[in-house]
Amino acid sequence: MGVHSCGCCSLKAGCRIGAIWTMIEAIFGIALLIASGLLGHGNIIAIAAACYFVVVFCAAWVLLSGIFREQTGILWGWIVVYTIFLLIRIVFLGFLVSAYAQFNYNKPISFEIVYLSDGTALSQRPLSVEEYLPVLLGTICTIGASIVISAWILVGVVYLAVHIRRNLWKRARLEDDCIQYS
Predict the structure, then answer these.
(1) 6 lies in a domain?
(2) Element containing residue 159 per DSSP (H, E)
(3) Which is it for the CA torsion 48, 49, 50, 56, positive or negative?
(4) In this structure, is residue 1 part of a structural domain?
(5) Closest CA to 47 of 35, 58, 38
(6) What share of the chain in percent tops pLDDT 90?
(7) Quick one: which of 140, 127, 132 has its CA closest to 96?
(8) How many angstroms separate the first and last alpha carbons of the chain?
(9) Parent domain of 122
(10) pTM of the complete model beyond 0.85
(11) Nearest Cα residue to 156 out of 58, 23, 10
């Protein structure tokens, strides 16, 4: 019993698609950070996000190699990194929903500006929130959909790791039985 398919494809193919999806997400994340110009201003949060997108891209590459080699240790390592990535996006989604709720109740949206000793800022205040409202709603919907897809990928990789481990145990038992009857 168990899950042996990932929608219309096999579990392995679905996890490969998930790894490629993760790579595309990481590339788009870095591209958006570069296009926004936040990386050039010494924004510590943007630099940390860019570093984590690089880590997620590398983890997706490792996931592909783990799928091809059928090594569950690699898959479990990817699961830890991707779970942290998913939790960060859930927190970010909560922040955006909170900002949208503050905007709807005509409360001023407060963005903390923290300047470090070297003069770099951790965050910046937008000029006009009204012009960013469609972008905010689009971002909330996009991140929500991305979280759902990412959770589906995470569950698929967990099932694949369990499936690979179960097959290894079956092969080991069959080899033991062949040795006993020889």
Answers:
(1) no
(2) helix 129-181
(3) positive
(4) no
(5) 38
(6) 3
(7) 140
(8) 30
(9) 11-181
(10) no
(11) 10
